[in-house]
Sequence to fold (76 residues):
Amino acid sequence: MLTLLSRGPGFYSKSLRKLVQLEKRGYAVLTGAISTDGSREWEITEAGRVALQAYTTNEASFLARPTIRFRVGQSL
Fold:
């Protein structure tokens, strides 16, 4: 969800559970804009951008690590 918001503010239901959780953590905030269907505009906060950057950096470094396999009974 933070990835979507990092692309720009978007309209979603105010009760969308993931957004409510992100709001409680300070990662997303309502802008105050409301669409004709009643959905609210949300945007990512600076704290959300930092959290997203940390997550993507950690995931990228994890994926770049080589896989080391050992056979049963093999010692280091």
Q: What stands out?
A: The first helix runs from residue 2 to 6.
